[in-house]
Amino acid sequence: MTTKQTIATPPLRAADQLFTLRNGNDMRLTISERGAALVSWWAPDRYGKVADVLLGYRDPDGYADNSAYFGAVIGRWANRIAQGRFMLDGAPVQAAVNDRGNHLHGGDAGFHRARWKLSASDAGVSLRLSSPDGDGGFPGKLDVQVHYRLDDEGRLTIDFEAVADAPTPVNLTAHPYFNLNGGSADVGDHMLQIDADFYMETDPRGIPIGVAAVAGTPFDFRQPAAIGPRLGWPDAQIRLVGGFDHCYCVKPHAMGRTGPLREVARVYDPGSGRRLQVSTTEPGLQFYSGNSLDGVQGRAGRPYARHDGFCLEAHAYPDQLNGQCASAVILRPGQVYRQTTVYRLSLQA
């Protein structure tokens, strides 16, 4: 039986609620209604020392703006849409553009900046948001729910659901930045493994230009490898963005559709002994090595540096609306969008 509890803590800001989930193994997970964001995840290392393994802002105003997307739920569309344009049932749609002429992570007024309606119980924390017709340029009213559960095995289960009153694209994800050493160093020593034979190459704007095999490239994490040395490989795709910001095809057989939950990635920090495992129902896993963190003010009272954290974001393929599997990401009235991602923190012997 779980010993998990949900407790209210002081507000992040005057109008924002903040709740903490606890399990029976000295873990605490703090969630804000602002952006439905994961604010902190306190977990012990192999010596029993507890540290926060998530990056975050030093003051509440950071989460109101959240230009780095720290810990937030992303929507309506995670990742990028080329020029913000796509066709829906034969009609052109123009979504908001906010990243070099493209749509990124819902636009400037995306879900990451919204105030969600939060409710908590012993079963976890649920957050709800109603996105009106035309929000971010997307058609139809969309009602979204996100549910967080933390169990005694260190599993954070994130369940997403959404319904719409008109056909509309939906592609949600969680955007936590991890540093398993608790911020004592960057993530260069972290050992990463991703179960994928292919990844998506991009143009300078981050838009996919094709699918490439990972074999023989710095993108090959089919066996565990340290992140740091790969950042310096003489590879055109690495130089393009100053590190990794690419989507791995972790479920190519799904043809861009949601599938059964399965483990797709693992990260191990040799210094602390902490291990992160990622499971998802989604076909894509974006690995981002914190290339733009330099100068972002962190909660430790100092600015973060490049590669101080990493993200593993599970979602549909970038720009899928303009690809062969566009129909897979259109939610229609009477349907329910569902997505599950699980992050599990534990200690490796």
Describe the protein's architecture and organization.
- The protein is mainly beta.
- Helix content is 5%, strand content 38%.
- It has helices spanning 60-65, 227-230, 236-241; strands at residues 5-8, 18-22, 28-32, 38-44, 50-52, 73-74, 80-81, 85-88, 91-94, 103-104, 117-121, 124-131, 142-150, 155-164, 168-169, 173-174, 191-194, 198-202, 208-213, 225-226, 245-249, 262-268, 274-280, 284-288, 311-315, 330-331, 337-347.
- The strands form eight sheets. It has a nine-stranded antiparallel sheet with strand order 11-12-13-14-27-23-22-17-20. A five-stranded antiparallel sheet has the order 1-2-3-4-5, with no helix packed on it. Strands 21-24-25 form a three-stranded antiparallel sheet, with no helix packed on it.
- The longest helix has 6 residues, at 60-65.
- It starts with a strand and ends with a strand.
- The model is unreliable at 1-13 (pLDDT under 50).
- Its EC number is 5.1.3.3.
- Pathway: Carbohydrate metabolism; hexose metabolism.
- It holds the Pfam family Aldose_epim.
Short description:
5% of the residues lie in helices and 38% in strands. The chain has 349 residues and is mainly β.
List keywords for this structure.
5-stranded antiparallel β-sheet; globular; single chain; 349 residues; mainly beta
Given the structure, what is the number of helices? 3
Q: Main sheet: which strands, in order across?
A: 11-12-13-14-27-23-22-17-20
Helix content: under 10%
Judged by helices, strands and strand pairing, the structural class is mainly beta
Q: Globular, elongated, flat, extended or rod-shaped: what is the shape?
A: globular
Content of β-strand: 35-45%
Biggest sheet features:
9 strands, antiparallel
Q: Could you give the distance between the termini?
A: 24 Å
Residue windows where pLDDT falls under 50 for at least 5 positions: 1-13
Quote the average pLDDT: 93
